[in-house]
Design a protein that fits this description.
It is built from five helices and eleven strands. It is of the alpha/beta class. The protein has a domain of 182 residues: Rossmann fold (3-Layer(aba) Sandwich), CATH 3.40.50.1580. The chain is globular, with a radius of gyration of 18 Å. The protein starts with 9 loop residues before the first strand and ends in a 25-residue tail after the last helix. Bound molecules: zinc ion (ZN). Zinc ion (ZN) binds next to helix 2. One of its GO terms (biological process) is L-methionine salvage from methylthioadenosine. Homohexamer. Dimer of a homotrimer.
C-alpha cells in the first residue's frame, strides 16, 4: 500500500536528548480523539528514514509516568504514518548482574500498573461518534521480533553488548519500589523494573505498530542493592552518562528496520479476524 500523506515512518518515544542534535527538524502539533500527546512531535531524518520523536514526559518533563496520555501518544504517531516504534526508557536492575549501564532489550513484560487505560477498544464512543468494538488483542509476545533484532545488532555494532531478552516489570509509580516489592519482583526472575513500558507496548500492538523497548539500567533496585535505595539523582546521573551512546544505538537501529510496507511480523497480525469497529488513523 502506498501512502503519500506519510510524514514519518518510524517513531521514537523518549527524551529530547535523542533529537536535539539533528539538523533540519520540523516540529508538529498533533491532536487525537484521546486528547493531546505529551508534547509536540519533532520530525527528522536518520539513515534516510523519516523519524518522529515524541518526548514521553513532555519537553519540560512535567508528566509523571501515571499521567502520560499513552493513548494519545501512540495514536498521534500512527496518524503521522509511523508503523515502527522504539521506546527507550530508564529502568532499575532486578538482578545483581544487571548493574548501571546495562542495556537490556526485553522480550516479555509484566504489568503491575494499577490505574491506566490500556485499550482503544473498550466500546466507548469517540468524540466524533464512532464506536470501537470490544477487542481482545493477542499479546503473548509483547515486542516486535524484527525491531528487537535491529536493536540488539545495533548495540553490538557499537561495542555495547546488550542483554538480549528478559522481563520488564512495569509499576505504577511515581514512587520507587519498597525493598519487599523489589525482592518479590527479583524472586520472580524478572529482569528490570520501570514505570512507562506499559501500556505503551500494548497500545502500540492495538494499533498494529511494531514496538521495541530499549531499557537502560540506571540503578540496582531497592531489593538488590545494599545502600539507601533508588534515588532520582542517581538515575539522572547514569542516564546522562549513557544517553549519547544510547542515541547512537537507536539511530543505527532505525537504519536496520525494514521498510514498513514489507512488514509481516506478528505485530501486523494481532487483529486478524477481528472487526475493530473503527478505522485506524
Ligand atoms: Zn513487528
Amino acid at each position: 500500500m502506498v501512502e503519500t500523506s506519510r510524514q514519518a515512518d518510524i517513531g521514537v518515544i523518549g527524551g529530547s536528548g535523542f533529537y536535539t542534535f539533528l539538523d533540519d527538524v520540523t516540529e508538529i502539533t498533533v491532536e487525537t480523539p484521546y486528547g493531546a500527546p505529551s508534547d509536540s512531535l519533532v520530525l527528522g531524518d536518520i539513515e534516510g528514514r523519516r523519524v518522529a520523536f515524541l518526548p514521553r514526559h513532555g519537553r519540560k518533563h512535567h508528566l509523571p509516568p501515571h499521567r502520560i496520555n499513552y493513548r494519545a501518544n501512540l495514536w498521534a504517531l500512527r496518524s503521522l504514518g509511523v508503523r515502527q516504534v522504539f521506546g527507550p526508557c530508564a529502568v532499575g536492575g532486578l538482578q545483581p548482574e544487571y548493574g548501571p549501564g546495562t542495556l537490556l532489550i526485553p522480550d516479555q513484560l509484566v504489568d503491575r500498573t494499577k490505574a491506566r487505560t490500556q485499550t482503544y477498544f473498550d466500546g466507548e464512543p469517540l468524540p466524533d461518534g464512532r464506536i470501537p468494538n470490544v477487542v481482545h488483542t493477542t499479546f503473548a509476545d509483547p515486542y516486535c521480533p524484527v525491531g528487537r533484532k535491529a536493536a540488539v545488532e545495533a548495540a553490538r555494532g557499537r561495542d555495547w553488548e546488550p542483554v538480549d531478552g528478559g522481563t520488564m516489570c512495569v509499576i505504577e509509580g511515581p514512587r520507587f519500589s519498597t525493598r519487599a516489592e523489589s525482592r518479590w519482583h527479583a524472586a520472580q526472575g524478572w529482569s528490570v523494573v520501570g514505570m512507562t513500558g506499559h501500556p505503551e507496548a500494548v497500545l502500540a500492538r492495538e494499533l498494529g505498530l511494531c514496538y521495541t523497548s530499549l531499557t537502560l539500567v540506571t540503578d540496582l533496585d531497592a531489593g538488590v542493592e545494599t545502600g539507601e535505595g533508588v534515588t532520582h539523582t542517581e538515575v539522572l546521573k547514569v542516564f546522562g552518562e549513557n544517553v549519547g551512546r544510547l542515541r547512537e544505538v537507536l539511530f543505527d537501529a532505525v537504519g536496520k528496520l525494514p521498510e514498513s510496507s514489507t512488514r509481516d511480523c506478528l505485530c501486523t497480525h494481532a487483529h486478524d479476524g477481528w472487526d475493530l469497529g473503527i478505522e485506524l488513523p
